[in-house]
Design brief:
Helix 3 crosses helix 11 (about 265-275), helix 6 packs parallel to helix 7 (about 155-165) and helix 9 runs parallel beside helix 14. This protein has two domains: about 45-200 and about 360-365, Glycogen Phosphorylase B (Rossmann fold, 3-Layer(aba) Sandwich), CATH 3.40.50; about 205-345, HAD superfamily/HAD-like (Rossmann fold). By secondary structure, the chain is α/β, with parallel strands linked by helices. The mean pLDDT is about 90. Strands 1, 2, 3, 4, 5, 6 and 7 form a seven-stranded parallel sheet that branches. It has a five-stranded parallel sheet with strand order 9-8-10-11-12, sandwiched between helices. Strand 5 (about 145-150), helix 7 (about 155-165) and strand 6 form a beta-alpha-beta unit. Helices cover about 45% and strands about 15% of the residues.
């Protein structure tokens, strides 16, 4: 009864006409306060050697947050003599905060600028590419590292603008996290050092061992513009699988406010890996959902999205985790593979690979 009343109020036009403007005003006020706090933090930095990590995530997407956590840990381990200061794109781009002027005052020749990894070099929305185009040309002599990126542009003009801006810093190391992005980055940035490099979240694979009971299939699905299959398609898949076993649903974007997740990413990461470890099979269209599945030791079926990010990202796992990962051409094929794995799961334990093969050598690559 109470749920019905709340839903009726939520759908009520008068309520929405009042609540929505108040909510958006609140969000704008909170964002403004956080930007002011970021500027204050930047102004208070001392003269220590420093790494500036820019473009950190501001949404509770656990994949992005895990990247942030692991990049921070990697920096502190490999550059212990440096302090790390991190800032989101919104604070850098905010027109009246003078972030760039203050950063120019603070930067020293021995300092580094690292850019957050992810799907950030594109024209599909968001702030990160605009932030890159503001920062990189401003400091053409500064040491910079672009952590593994997915690269995709629909607009030739936006692509040209980014190509021109990024290429102003001739010494920047640009890491591309899949082969399509690598080929595009080579084309866009012929004067930069471009290297094909895996997402840092892959370093989690093989580090965890779960011994609890596994049962059923987990659907880890995105709900944004990158999804390929409709909700009706996924509901039909779920209905078919429920004839065989229990079916759960999840996403790597969680409802917890970003500030709480960022304050304790490890807690939320462990919680998600525990959830993934309770299932026999996972079906996902999330790239980090794929990595989390492997980290949890759970075989994963990958279904396509509207772009290349997920499917080409799977190339990293070929010949390494073939028994645990399967790319389905359609949902019928995904269902058939899930049923097969329910009856006959892979037996071999997943071993670590990416940290030793790649991330133990990244500092050397940067210094070269």
């Amino acid at each position: 009864m109470m749920k019905a009343i709340i839903q009726k109020l939520r759908n009520s036009r008068p309520v929405n006409q009042f609540v929505k403007p108040v909510y958006f005003c609140y969000i704008r006020f909170v964002t403004w306060i956080r930007i002011k706090l970021d500027i204050s933090k930047l102004r208070k930095l001392d003269d220590s050697k420093r790494i500036y990590l820019l473009g950190i995530p501001t949404a509770a997407n656990l994949g992005d947050m895990t990247q942030y956590l692991l990049i921070l840990e990697w920096l502190k381990k490999n550059y212990p003599e440096y302090d790390v200061a991190d800032f989101p794109s919104r604070s850098i781009l905010y027109r009246n905060c003078f972030f760039m002027d203050v950063l120019e005052e603070k930067l020293k020749p021995e300092d580094y600028i690292f850019f957050q990894s992810g799907y950030d070099t594109h024209d599909l929305g968001g702030e990160e590419d605009f932030m890159h185009k503001m920062v990189i040309p401003r400091f053409p002599e500064q040491k910079m590292v672009m952590m593994p990126q997915t690269v995709y542009f629909r607009s030739k003009e936006r692509e040209r603008q980014s190509s021109d801006a990024y290429s102003r810093n001739k010494g920047m190391l640009f890491l591309a996290r899949d082969n399509v992005s690598y080929q595009k980055a080579l084309q866009m940035f012929p004067d930069l050092k471009v290297v094909l490099y895996p997402d840092i979240v892959t370093t989690l694979i093989g580090k965890y061992h779960f011994s609890g009971e596994r049962k059923g299939v987990l659907l880890c699905q995105r709900a944004d513009g990158e999804k390929f299959y409709s909700k009706e398609d996924i509901d039909a898949l779920k209905h078919h699988l429920q004839k065989q076993t229990v079916v759960g649903c999840a996403d790597t974007t969680i409802s917890t406010p970003n500030m709480f997740v960022r304050a304790n990413v490890r807690k939320y990461l462990n919680r998600m890996l525990q959830q993934f470890s309770r299932y026999q099979v996972i079906i996902t269209d999330r790239y980090h959902g794929t990595i989390f599945s492997l980290a949890a030791g759970t075989p994963v079926i990958v279904i396509k999205t509207t772009d290349h990010k997920v499917t080409t990202g799977l190339d990293w796992f070929k010949g390494i985790y073939d028994d645990y990962i399967y790319l389905a051409e359609n949902l019928k094929e995904a269902e058939e593979k899930a049923v097969q794995w329910l009856k006959n799961p892979p037996k071999e334990k997943i071993k670590p690979y990416f940290e030793k093969t790649y991330y133990e050598h990244l500092q050397q690559l940067i210094e070269e």
